[in-house]
Design goal:
The complex is a heterodimer of chains A (439) and B (284). Chain A has 439 residues and is of the alpha/beta class. Chain A has eight helices and 18 strands. The longest helix of chain B has 26 residues. Classes of the chains: A alpha/beta (439), B mainly alpha (284). The interface between A and B is large, with 55 and 43 residues.
Amino acid sequence: MSGFAIRAEGLGKKFHLGERERYKALRDTLTRAAAAPFRALVRLVSGRAPFPRPEREEFWALTDASFEIAPGEVVGLIGRNGAGKSTLLKILSRIIEPTTGRAFLRGRVGSLLEVGTGFHPELTGRENVYLNGAILGMGRREVRRKFDEIVGFAEVEQFIDTPVKRYSTGMHMRLAFAVAAQLEPEILLVDEVLAVGDSTFQKKCIGRMGEVGREGRTVVFVSHSMTAITRLCPRAILLDRGRVIADGPASEVTAAYLRSDLGTMAHRSWPDQATAPGDRVVRLRSVSVIAADGTASEAIDIRRPVTIEMAYDVLQPGYVPVPNFHLHNEEGICVFVTGDTDPEWRGRPKPAGRYVSRVTVPGNFLSEGTLIVDAAISTLDPATVHAHEREAVAFNVFDSIDGESMRGDYGGAVPGVVRPHLHWKTVTEGVPAPTKGIP
Amino acid sequence: MISKTKKHIPHSDVHVIAPTRGLRLVDPFELWLWRELFVALIVRDVAVRYKQTAIGIAWVVVQPLATVAVFSFLLGKLGNVPTGGLPYPLFAFAAMVPWQVFSRSLVEGSMSLAGNRSLVTKVYFPRILMPAAAVFGGAVDFGITFVILLAMMMWFGFVPSWQILLTPALLALALLTSLGVALWLSALNVLYRDVQFVLPFLAQIWLFLTPVLYPASVIPEKWRLLYAMNPMVTVTESFRWAVLGGATAPEPLMLLVSTATVFIVLLSGMAYFRHVEREMADRI
């Protein structure tokens, strides 16, 4: 056996779509059995099936996933919703059984598919720490030893003997993550847990995850956040419709993911207002990237301006919602943040209705590569984020070598977060007099 | 430290994940590894049960006392129950003590998986711990009702004899019965939620099929062995004998039949539970 931490050989998972319903009633099974003779009679008389039996559709959530992860590697698992990321993680966590294939895991496995699994609202913070610790596979003695550290990390010292139901969401999340952060498995499987909590807490969690990686533990990390993936994971595996379609350095795989035709990235819309990102005040309805020719496009010429727009519904009047965009590059670096400063609406409450806000980024400003746009709508005073869609849209800025952009006739890689085409001026100041000693 | 590599890798070091087929048995080694979770789940269940109740633990006592009071009144009016000379309230309550533990454990154990959906779908542990913890958590009430029983015995002037030492064994038999049935029902409840509607009804019928409010002696001799296939018959009758003495000592043959039934239900329950376990997270 060579030195692997995780080895997957042709893992597959099949679901019967009928079984994905939450449960079936015994009654249905019984009535179907009782109706069978009647059904047969009708078929005999009419020559066709009376009520076509619902097809038991099969659905492979994961097919033939094979890979090997070395001890100490930190690997990101990316893909669209339904690509099979969670299924793979659940198989590796032994929560569900694979239909085909095998996997080998060497060492103690800790999995974190949800923050605070098993937290009970009636129990105090202290009681929940011990319970959650046990659920994650930690012994009572182990939890007791780390108790102060957990409480310190979560910053809930004063409330540790208060029932968790009186905690704020933030406190609840901090405490839950603090317990999980103390887990010391050799292999850690993490799903999207960082998508919760406020940004300072997220930073803390990401910091902690980075530490875990540096401590030489193997981490498999599922996330929608390319930023987090590229920052934490040197390697990434891309899943699409249940298959592993790319496996390699995270920067390349994430770029491939954004570039691929897994779905248009330049336009996103939420047809159903009720499930659209937002709250009772505003709901985001669509976000688009529009090229200079006026069409939604993922490919943006570096020399041309690009317009980013969002449509949103204001449901409650009396607020001053400010739409804003956050642009990140492939390395996860925030390029800039821009918010609506249109003087017509500045400080003015918006009546209920549909609005479209757009901003134009000038040409010859962004650097080439993928730009990921987070769309948000917030109000000031009190500062509240009403809608926040990470990675709402993304687009690629290309810089072809035709001498018109900043790169001029240079064909190599150009570093830098932005690539402004600045105005250069060179004048000649005559021929200098020859200096003695220099040939 | 993970760098320490040994030539011989123990079983616990490399987990193999693969589809399983056929009969799977309970792995005692694995259960031992998870013993702390078992305890934590019991602590949780007991702590939560009385957290937001006004009179808390008193509920354990109110329910059986009320039942016994009602039946004492009804049966006192309607006719004579052959209690073998025991005062009826004491006669009924003595059997009510193990019965209540059993029925509570049965209900909690059977509902345990469906009531902890997030645990089943988000973390791994041997699922059997869930009904087991719920069943054994139900036993905590036993201590309280047993004290009430002792108080009642003092009131009626009964002094327990050596047989009272047998009560833990009878309690264990009651818990194993409810564990066996709860394994079946909790697993079935994952697939068919009908179980939760059947459950209160089942508990009620079962009470009438058990000599709690009447003595086993009202059942004709020739039906006794069939009757003993309900293990709670032996548990309640023997329990009453163990604390109060009197004529109805448990018959060895009935004891044997009941014990055999318990083990059949328990083993088949484990096998069925393990069978459903592999798709529990998909189906719950």
